[in-house]
C-alpha cells in the first residue's frame, strides 16, 4: 500500500538552498537543509506547520512524498 506523506519546504528570500521542517514540537520550528532528516507528516499537520511559519520573508510549500512502508497501530487509529 502506498502512503502519501508531506514535507514542508521553505524558501527564504536570498538563500538558494531550500530548508525543510525537522521538528515541530517546539517553538520556533526547527529547520534542516538535509531532506532525509526532514519530518514526514500527514497533510493536516503539514498545513498547520505552513501556517505557523508563514511570514513575509519565507515561502513555505507542501511537498508530497510517496512511501511504501507499513502502518503502525498508532497511525491506523489516527
Compressed to H and E, one letter per element, the order equals EEEHEH
Question: How does the helix and strand content classify structurally?
Answer: alpha+beta
Low-confidence stretches: 73-78
Total DSSP E strands: 4
- Give the percentage of residues in beta strands: 35-45%
Number of domains: 1
Q: How can the largest sheet be summarized?
A: 4 strands, antiparallel
Rg over CA atoms: 13 Å
In spatial order, strands of the major sheet run: 3-2-1-4
State the distance separating the first and last CA atoms: 17 Å
Helix content: 10-25%
Number of helices: 2
Mean pLDDT score:
79
Shape: globular
Describe the protein in words:
With 78 residues, the chain is α+β, with helices and mostly antiparallel strands. It has one domain (3-77). The chain has helices spanning 43-53, 73-77; strands at 3-12, 19-23, 30-32, 58-67. The chain has a four-stranded antiparallel beta sheet with strand order 3-2-1-4, with helices on one face. The radius of gyration is 13 Å and the shape is globular.
The gist of it:
With 78 residues, the chain is an alpha+beta fold.
Keywords:
alpha+beta; 78 residues; four-stranded antiparallel β-sheet
Detail the topology: elements first, then pairings.
Layout lengths: L2 E10 L6 E5 L6 E3 L10 H11 L4 E10 L5 H5 L1
Antiparallel strand pairs: 1-2, 1-4, 2-3
Amino acid at each position: 500500500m502506498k502512503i502519501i506523506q508531506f514535507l514542508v519546504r521553505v524558501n527564504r528570500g536570498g538563500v538558494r538552498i531550500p530548508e525543510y521542517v525537522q521538528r515541530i514540537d517546539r517553538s520556533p520550528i526547527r529547520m534542516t537543509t538535509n531532506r532525509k532528516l526532514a519530518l514526514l507528516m500527514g497533510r493536516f499537520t503539514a498545513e498547520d506547520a505552513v501556517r505557523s511559519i508563514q511570514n513575509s520573508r519565507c515561502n513555505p510549500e507542501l511537498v508530497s512524498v510517496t512511501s511504501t512502508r507499513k502502518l503502525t497501530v498508532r497511525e491506523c487509529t489516527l
